[in-house]
Specification:
Blueprint lengths: L1 H16 L7 H15 L7 H28 L4 H18 L1 H20 L2 H38 L1
Helix pairs in contact: 1-2, 1-6, 2-3, 2-6, 3-4, 3-6, 4-5, 5-6
């Protein structure tokens, strides 16, 4: 029972961590699932459930770090802008946190696109897409971690 409570606590922290700065939401959620799975001798919640939440969780975690760059690329920004945005975003996240990451991604996409196209309007559009992409990745992470929590509760309690 104590492992179950700790696992649920990790899953709840995972949901909260999806929106909190510098808190790894998806890894916390996965840790809760793995802890409980281990505590039951790898019987409950079952291999298929664990494999599914692992794949979805890893995809969500990766999307968080490339969401802005991918959205910038979708707006027509160059690959170079997407690469620079991804690197700048990760560095800024470590150094300044999520607000710095947002500013670094938007700023780097804007700068690269203006230098490449000499069109500030196009640079602003690409930077806007990058910002929306990053916000969407946060929403996606919240949905994924909340779904993992609800699914875990359903599988283990029903």
């Amino acid at each position: 029972m104590e492992f179950y409570l700790v696992a649920v606590g990790l899953l709840v922290l995972g949901v909260a961590g999806s929106v909190a700065p510098m808190v790894p939401g998806v890894p916390l959620s996965l840790a809760g699932v793995y802890l409980y799975w281990w505590s039951t001798g790898f019987e409950t919640p079952g291999v298929l459930f664990v494999a599914t939440v692992t794949v979805v969780g890893v995809a969500a975690f990766a999307a968080d770090y490339v969401g802005g760059a991918a959205a910038a690329r979708a707006s027509g920004a160059s690959r170079w802008a997407a690469v620079v945005a991804a690197v700048a975003g990760v560095v800024a996240l470590v150094v300044t946190g999520p607000v710095g990451m947002l500013v670094a991604v938007a700023g780097s996409v804007f700068a690269v696109e203006v230098a490449r196209t000499r069109d500030a309007r196009s640079g602003l559009r690409s930077a806007g897409y990058a910002t929306v992409g990053m916000a969407a990745s946060v929403v996606f992470q919240v949905l994924v971690t909340a779904t993992i929590l609800v699914a875990f509760l359903a599988v283990t309690l029903l």
